[in-house]
Amino acid sequence: MNLSNILNIKHTESNNFFLMAGPCAIENETMALRIAERIVTITDKLAIPYIFKGSYKKANRSRIDSFTGIGDEKALKILRKVAETFNIPTVTDIHESNDAEIAAQYVDILQIPAFLVRQTDLVVAAAKTGKTVNLKKGQFMSPESMQHAVKKVLDSHNENVMLTDRGTMFGYQDMIVDFRGIPTMKKYATTVLDVTHSLQQPNQSIGVTGGRPEMIETIARAGIVNMVDGLFIETHFDPANAKSDGANMLHLDNLERLLTNLVKIRKTVISL
């Protein structure tokens, strides 16, 4: 996939990794704009191609009383406002086939969640919108098996497809990243490493997913060393009170230092 095919993406000539980052879920307009403005400032400074990430609804919840969203249309309109305000592309995840056409009216990239990436109708519906499709590797799938998900997009006459590794289940309550999968998946499509979801600790007895955010820089550094094309990072100015996935998000105040270090590592690796 040619990154330049994504509308309004900047700094594609910098030879940097690209970044998909933002909150787990759209909570309100003020928080979305605040987070986007901060990340745009940082990525412009470091010449990192940037795509704002935010889920307009959350369908995969452990408990029935978990936060699922503020309303589909309301959240999608906020995503469009972020795009128009900062002239940047946006990505959101979809969960059912009829979500594809609706979400495609508001965002630039449609993301297929890891638990749903084998759902052919969903993948094909996303591909047929003509939007870029980001396929998250199932926690239960091998890197090699993702070539078939990619082929579903390509066979739907859409060449704009990327893959994202978000870790593999290790027992019931932990995730691991097998970095051997990066060069494998890069054979099939542009490949992203989802740093924060790779550090989740799912299936907790309280029904709220845990995480290990102190390991974010460790995983991100390893991804850059292994020449991943892009990084996916969920971030928030108040993770402790975020309505979704706060346990594994990066505090927004720590993003600039992290990205600054990663850009330096990227330049070093390329020069070797």
From TrEMBL:
Known EC number(s)?
Answer: 2.5.1.55
Domain of life, per the record? Answer: Bacteria
UniProt record, GO biological process:
lipopolysaccharide biosynthetic process
Q: Give the record's keywords alphabetically.
A: Cytoplasm, Transferase
Q: Which GO terms describe its molecular function?
A: 3-deoxy-8-phosphooctulonate synthase activity
- Tell me where it mainly resides: cytoplasm
**InterPro entries referenced in this protein's UniProt entry, alphabetically:** Aldolase_TIM, DAHP1/KDSA, KDO8P_synthase
The signal peptide, as residue positions, is: none
Q: Which Gene3D superfamilies match?
A: Aldolase class I
> What Pfam families would the database entry show?
DAHP_synth_1
Q: Where in the cell is it found?
A: Cytoplasm
- Gene Ontology cellular component annotations, sorted alphabetically: cytoplasm
Pathway(s) of this molecule: Bacterial outer membrane biogenesis; lipopolysaccharide biosynthesis; Carbohydrate biosynthesis; 3-deoxy-D-manno-octulosonate biosynthesis; 3-deoxy-D-manno-octulosonate from D-ribulose 5-phosphate: step 2/3
Q: Respond yes or no to whether keyword Cytoplasm is given for this record.
A: yes
Reactions this protein catalyses: D-arabinose 5-phosphate + phosphoenolpyruvate + H2O = 3-deoxy-alpha-D-manno-2-octulosonate-8-phosphate + phosphate
Q: Look up keyword Protein biosynthesis and say if it applies.
A: no
**Start and end residues of each DAHP synthetase I/KDSA domain:** 9-267
What protein family does this chain belong to?
Answer: Belongs to the KdsA family.
Q: What PANTHER family does the record tag this protein with? A: PHOSPHO-2-DEHYDRO-3-DEOXYHEPTONATE ALDOLASE (PTHR21057)
Q: What is this protein called?
A: 3-deoxy-8-phosphooctulonate synthase
Biological source species: Mesonia hippocampi
